[in-house]
């Protein structure tokens, strides 16, 4: 049984073929224009979905890079600020040593007081450093307003104790600048664990120049006093007033009592005492205020002069602890800056991998696409030629 192909069927098939080739050609034109193999999700649903996920990952890397830039800026401000604070504390240390000279005149002390006050004001300004965007570096997460303020002559901290953790890489976080409370406030006194002071009523010229643990780990943290019964003999008195030991004092030698080493210079008088207690904490501004108070104290008598010397020695210890805090804080910031460098390397490596995968999945092979375009264009022209020839063919034309 023979089958016949009608003219209309041939016509429709030819039109369909040309439309298909035209659609293919149009799709190739879009690919060439965009440079992408995937013009729409239907081209490759799996690849298109994967590409969206990769784009999001790249956008996340860009966001992390922005975060890293912001944190790096703030940590940089922290480093520069604390370097300046450290320089100021070195100057305060020099001034305190200078003030310990008994021959210093009242005018000289007044000059020192003026400079210490200027340094204190400079410290306050540095503690309120901002990052250039209106956010204060040392305010913790409460960084919209200056974290430090002078109220009734005392500097108070108005930030919070929270240190931000910022994502700067995939599953990688760094800490933002330290809260000001961890840098300028709550600085331990003495050697950081134990502290001491001379009694206010001492009449001799004994000065406590240093106090520290003796390395035996035998100090139990309980306070006690070293009370002189003569110029060379002393007794150890616990917090309840009980005598727990005795000893002999020799100028220039350290006293080692209950796991604590005390260095007392000069000649204590009978009845003089020096107390030992666990270190407390003091803010850097209070240390400046105490130094100013010591410099302004009366020194008309030997007892007053000795009291000032003890206050200055205490200030020296506090300044040393404050300087150590600056060093520790700078080290902490440096560790975060190093972590930022490592995170940058990680982001770069991840970005290259993601972009390479995206390129393989989505980027057009122009040589192949142009070859296909030429092939489809030629095929379309051939189909159009054949269709044109078919239109001119009919039975009447054959009968002529």
Automatic annotation (TrEMBL):
CC per GO annotation: bacterial-type flagellum hook; extracellular region
Zinc in keyword set: no
UniProt domain Flagellin N-terminal: residue ranges: 5-142
GO biological process: bacterial-type flagellum-dependent cell motility
Signal peptide: none
The organism's place on the tree of life at top rank: Bacteria
Keyword Lipoprotein on entry: no
Annotated compartments: Bacterial flagellum; Secreted
Keyword list, A-Z: Bacterial flagellum, Cell projection, Cilium, Flagellum, Secreted
Pfam families named among the record's database cross-references: Flagellin_N
Entries under PANTHER family matching the protein: FLAGELLAR HOOK-ASSOCIATED PROTEIN 3 (PTHR42792:SF1), FLAGELLIN (PTHR42792)
NCBIfam families: flagell_flgL (TIGR02550)
Name assigned to this protein: Flagellar hook-associated protein 3
Source organism per UniProt: Stenotrophomonas maltophilia
């Amino acid at each position: 049984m023979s089958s016949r192909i009608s003219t209309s069927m041939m016509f429709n098939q030819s039109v369909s073929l040309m439309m298909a080739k035209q659609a293919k050609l149009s799709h190739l034109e879009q690919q060439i224009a965009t440079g992408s193999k995937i013009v729409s999700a239907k081209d490759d649903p799996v690849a298109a979905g994967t590409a969206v996920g990769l784009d999001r990952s790249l956008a996340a890397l860009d966001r992390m890079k922005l975060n890293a830039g912001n944190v790096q800026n703030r940590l940089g401000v922290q480093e520069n600020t604390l370097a300046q604070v450290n320089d100021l504390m070195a100057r305060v240390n020099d001034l305190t040593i200078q003030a310990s000279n008994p021959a210093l005149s009242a005018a000289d002390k007044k000059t020192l007081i003026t400079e210490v006050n200027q340094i204190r004001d400079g410290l306050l300004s540095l503690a309120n450093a901002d990052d250039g965007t209106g956010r204060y570096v040392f305010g913790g997460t409460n960084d919209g307003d200056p974290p430090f303020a002078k109220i009734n002559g005392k500097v108070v901290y108005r930030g919070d104790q929270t240190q931000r953790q910022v994502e700067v890489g995939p599953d990688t976080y760094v800490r933002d600048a330290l809260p000001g409370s961890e840098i300028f406030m709550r600085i331990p006194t003495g050697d950081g664990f134990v502290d001491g002071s001379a009694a206010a009523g001492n009449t001799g010229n004994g000065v406590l120049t240093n106090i520290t643990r003796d390395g035996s780990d035998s100090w139990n943290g309980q306070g006690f006093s070293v009370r002189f019964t003569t110029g060379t003999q002393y007794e150890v008195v616990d917090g309840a007033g009980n005598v727990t030991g005795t000893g002999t004092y020799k100028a220039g030698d350290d006293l080692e009592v209950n796991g604590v080493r005390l260095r007392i210079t000069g000649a204590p008088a009978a009845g003089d005492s020096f107390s030992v207690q666990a270190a407390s904490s003091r803010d850097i501004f209070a240390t400046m205020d105490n130094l100013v108070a010591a410099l302004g104290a009366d020194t008309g008598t030997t007892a007053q002069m000795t009291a000032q010397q003890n206050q200055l020695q205490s200030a020296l210890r506090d300044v040393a602890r404050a300087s150590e805090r600056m060093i520790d804080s700078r080290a902490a910031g440096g560790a975060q800056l190093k972590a930022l460098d490592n995170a940058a390397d990680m982001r770069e490596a991840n970005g290259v991998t993601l972009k390479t995968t995206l390129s393989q999945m989505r980027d057009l092979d122009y040589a192949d696409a142009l070859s296909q375009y030429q092939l489809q264009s030629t095929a379309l022209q051939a189909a159009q030629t054949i269709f044109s020839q078919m239109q001119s063919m009919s039975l009447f034309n054959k009968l002529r």
